[in-house]
Amino acid sequence: MTEDHSQSEYEDLVKRREELRYVAGMLDGEGSIMLLRQSLRYVRPRMTITNLDRHLLERCRRILRAGRIEHTHKKKTRVLRLCIERRDVIERVVRDLLPFLTLKKPQALLMLRFLRSGQSRRIQAFAMAEEMSSLNRVDHK
Asked: What's the CATH number for 3-139?
């Protein structure tokens, strides 16, 4: 490997870390990590970042290589939301962002625990969903 090649790889790594740090800051400030109870039988994972600026959300989506942008309403205001719901993608994204998260780190760790536990233990999944809900209530205070 040439010296120029390793310098380029190093610069790419530094840039990637800066981009992940940026998205982690967005998730900490404008995002949610959730375990949503769907009926009495299923808990589904979800991550979102909500903002008015489509370009900002597109940048986050490009960096994460994941998610879709959808319209939603928040307190009578139309906003946009980057939404990630696929289990395997959420796991990859959480692992990528975990070193850079601060406020949402407990939720991220719980999400990883949930994803690794599988859905076979329904009672455990519902308990984790309740724990996540509790963490998110504390996070908003």
From this structure: 3.10.28.10
pLDDT one-digit tens code per residue, 66-89:
999 999 877 778 899 999 999 999
> What is the Cα–Cα distance from 26 to 141, expressed in whole angstroms?
18
Q: By the 8 A CB rule, do 111 and 90 touch? A: yes
pTM score, whole prediction: 0.86
Q: Residue 86, SS3?
A: coil
Using only C-alpha atoms, the chain has a radius of gyration, in whole angstroms, of: 17
- How far, in Å, CA of 35 to CA of 43, rounded? 6
Q: In the numeric block, which tokens belong to residue 120? A: 């076979």
Domain positions in the chain are 3-139
Q: How far apart are CA 103 and CA 95, in angstroms?
A: 15
